[in-house]
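Can anyone check this?
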Amino acid sequence: MPTAADLDAAIRDVPDFPKPGILFKDITPILGDPELFKTSLELLAETAGSEKIDKVVGIDARGFIFAAGVAHILGAGFVPVRKKGKLPWTTHQMAYSLEYGEDVVEIHADAIKPGEKILLVDDLLATGGTAAASIKLLKALDADIVGVSFLIELTGLNGREALSHSKLHSILSY
């Protein structure tokens, strides 16, 4: 079975994307390799430890790819947190600040029952704004967030500091 080191070796660095000065970590080589993709899902699922997870929540959009697979492995439901206006039913919202402005994430009003054990999953932790808003949204629904897990953490952007959760995991750090 491949390891986290194999995942690291597969990630492609793309300089100056999406704008000059950014070094983009491209995960598509992991997604395109069935063994690497399976390993990424299993490593993320392991971050739940011995907790029985009711729902795995994925953050729009690449978080969906990983969260749905992790939910399958854990025998849990999958719930998407989406950008404003993308969900078709009654929602709860949480606004958060961006470098230049504000954005909003939403979840279906009936997606989480009070006390359900939640694992929040996303592909990347950068500044932490979207994840922090997602955590606040889940707490407002009285969810029991048992872990917050990322495939990649960009440590230089201090996203961990924006997240008030002690059980934060990242598989790879740069």
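Reply from J.R.: I decoded it. The radius of gyration is 16 Å.
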